[in-house]
Write a structure and sequence with these properties.
Layout lengths: L26 H4 L5 E5 L2 E6 L4 H10 L2 E5 L2 E6 L3 H8 L12 E7 L5 E11 L2 E6 L4 H7 L7 E3 L5 E5 L3 H8 L13 E6 L2 E6 L8 E5 L6 H12 L5 E2 L3 H9 L34 H4 L8 E6 L9 E4 L2 E12 L4 E8 L9 E5 L6 E6 L20
Parallel strand pairs: 3-13
Antiparallel strand pairs: 1-2, 3-9, 4-7, 4-8, 5-6, 6-7, 9-12, 10-11, 11-12, 14-17, 14-19, 15-16, 15-18, 16-17, 18-19
Helix pairs in contact: 2-7, 5-6
Length: 387
């Protein structure tokens, strides 16, 4: 199931039982008659609230936005937690210290991308894997035979506060406990408005930001009110994920099941740096041995058309790939998107043709990802220039 959030998707909707998927515990504060919901990891999320997504985008880039996101933490605990995760994930897990996170991919036995997410270690023999979209909890259970581990749902809903003001907001929300000392991909437990919560300096926007992880004991509405009150003086606003989608594509962040899936290897998705082929065996390792490490997933920019999912990419009239997702980029002032090519080649730097549904063609340029901030100076807090 793809999680497209392009303009056409806001009208292409169906009614579905409100009890079919997991509702947000913040819905009493965020609900709106204009809300259009999507489903991700079997959870509802607001993909549109009737707002101007470009205005929200600039608030994200200049101040801060708070997002109620559906990413789902799964807890893996027990004496064999580390060796089990070494088996199912392509990253080296045993050396991960408490208070750190790492991006990790789970592959199929055939070497395809099954899941991606961020792994944290909140305590000894205890890990949280914050999964993207897809049935990863059942996948873990199915592969746990022979390991002394417990796979459980900590009932965690995640809030993201993203943007250049997020460091000041989180400092105020934690009475100064959270500051620049919490580096990128670091994490820990903090008192946020009188509640002990896990916080990481991560996000899904390419901007400086934080994620706050609730659990079954959290007073969600009290937390929400505390964060909104704290963030208001800094210009923080609540947003649907429309602005996040624009920014995550600019930042080269991929969506599982949308931009990559089991039919492509992590190498083909451009994720070779996150595959530790020199570690002991992991699921999919043998299938990845000797595979072409060139990426099939690249960026496309177009001055006259916004790319959309399914649009063809042509080279001298021949279809050589297709768009997986596209958005207008306010920073670059053009349409951008991801292209999945049929075969690896020297595509970067080429001018090809974008063919949308109406059949007209537009000149487009193939570029490396991300579209800007390739050294991640923004997300690391090194570059705090307000655009």
């Amino acid at each position: 199931m793809k999680n497209l959030q392009e303009a056409s998707d806001l009208e292409n909707t169906v009614a579905i039982s409100a009890r079919r998927f997991e509702e947000s515990p913040f819905i009493a504060r965020t609900n709106s008659p204009h809300m259009v919901r999507g489903v991700y990891a079997d959870r509802y999320l607001a993909i549109y609230l009737g707002e101007d997504p470009v205005e929200k985008y600039w608030t994200l880039r200049r101040k801060a936005l708070i997002f109620d996101v559906p990413e789902k933490p799964i807890e893996i605990s027990g004496p064999d937690a580390a060796p089990f995760l070494e088996k199912v994930l392509s990253r080296r897990v045993a050396s991960l210290p408490e208070g750190r996170g790492l991006y990790a991919i789970a592959c199929t036995p055939q070497g395809g991308v099954f899941m991606d997410g961020v792994l944290f270690k909140p305590g000894p023999d205890r890990y949280w894997y914050v999964q993207a979209d897809g049935p990863f909890e059942t996948w873990l259970i199915a592969h746990s035979d022979g390991y002394d581990v417990t796979i459980s749902d900590p009932k965690s809903r995640v809030l993201q506060i993203q943007g250049p003001a997020s460091i000041d907001i989180m400092s105020a929300a934690s009475n100064g406990a959270i500051n620049d000392g919490l580096r990128y991909f670091c994490s820990g437990f903090f008192d946020i408005g009188g509640q002990n919560l896990y916080v990481s300096r991560t996000g899904f926007t390419g901007e400086l930001g934080f994620e706050i992880y609730c659990d079954a004991t959290t007073d969600h509405l009290r937390l929400w009110d505390h964060l909104i009150e704290t963030g208001e003086p800094f210009g923080m606003e609540f947003s649907s994920t429309r602005a996040m989608t624009i920014r995550r594509i600019e930042a080269g962040i991929l969506g599982n099941l949308t931009d990559m899936d089991t039919t492509m290897t992590p190498f083909e998705a451009g994720l070779a740096p996150f595959i530790d082929m020199d570690k002991d065996d992991f699921t999919g390792r043998s299938a990845l041995e000797g595979r072409d490490r060139r990426s099939l997933l690249l960026g496309v920019t177009c001055q006259t058309q916004t790319p959309a999912a399914g649009n063809a990419i042509l080279d001298q009239g021949n279809e050589v790939g297709y768009v997986t997702a596209g958005v207008p980029s306010p920073t670059l002032d053009c349409g951008i998107g991801y292209v999945r090519f049929n075969a690896a080649a020297d595509w970067v730097g080429r001018t090809l043709e974008l063919k949308p549904a109406d059949g007209q063609t537009h000149a487009c340029d193939i570029v490396d990802l991300p579209f800007f901030d390739r050294d991640k100076n923004i997300v690391r807090g090194i570059d705090r220039t307000i655009p």
